[in-house]
Amino acid sequence: MKEEIDQFKAVYDLIVTFFVTYSFQLVGALIILLIGLLISNRVARLVARTCDKHGLDVTLSRFLASCTKIIIIVVVAVICLGKIGISVTPFVAAIGALSLGAGLAMQGLLANYGAGFNIIITRPFVVGDTITVQGVTGIVKEVRLAQTILSDEDDVSILIPNRHIVGEIIHNSNAFKVVESTLGVAYTSDIDQVTATIKTVLHELGVDTNRPPQVGIDEFGDSSINFGIRYWVPTDKYHQLRFSVNDQLFKALHLAGIEIPFPQREIRLLNSGTNEPLK
Predict the structure, then answer these.
(1) Do 140 and 129 form a contact (C-beta atoms < 8 A)?
(2) Start-end ranges of CATH 3.30.70.100 in the chain?
(3) What φ, ψ does residue 270 adopt, rounded to 5°?
(4) Which residues contact 28 (CB under 8 A, 6 or more apart)?
(5) Distance (Å, rounded) from C-alpha 120 to C-alpha 146?
(6) What is the pLDDT of residues 66-77, one digit of tens each?
(7) What is residue 39's three-state secondary structure?
(8) Start-to-end C-alpha separation, the chain
(9) What is the pLDDT of residues 245-274, one digit of tens each?
């Protein structure tokens, strides 16, 4: 019992001595910490406003503001530890050892962060662009350090790890996506009339406001002249406008008397022994 009382007394004396010795340092460290947090928030907002003023995209602005805030907080934390007599050298050594082990254990995650940093700095695409990568197409909603978030016409969120983006072939069509379709008409049709009808439909639906559509003969098929049609629509209305164009084209061609032929194939039977027709 006496040994326990002595141990408790020793701990009590140590705590009292610590607070007596470092009481003012603790108060000073707390004040520095609060001031540092306040300054970090204000500087981060200032950096974000400056980036917006100079026309930087949202992703890069948020990244720079977050990095600035973290750096200020780390510096303030080091100053506070020094004020209360705690050496930061062992912590730096421990952080270095832990970083090495964590780096080996999380190579994939670190690769995503490295790729995300590359995307934010080089900016091959920004929020609002339409990109196609790894066979997936969508509108860029957010670029994070670990992943990029896309969204399609069905409001489905697509999360792509950044290491699967950097180094790959990226198709960036800004906010639009091209529609490529083929329309077959009879060989007896007036080519100029067909072209004018297609362009009129595209104009009435307003899909030629971004850039002029491309309409022309794509190939001469067995049963029809196949027209190639290329036009650009907003990515978030891709299927909706594509279906509308197809519906209006069918109605317009019918009203203009332009025939869309059925597939036809001619078969001839050669028989040298008889000239009678096949029944």
Answers:
(1) yes
(2) 176-255
(3) -100, 120
(4) 83
(5) 11
(6) 888 888 888 888
(7) helix
(8) 120
(9) 999 999 999 999 999 888 767 777 776 555
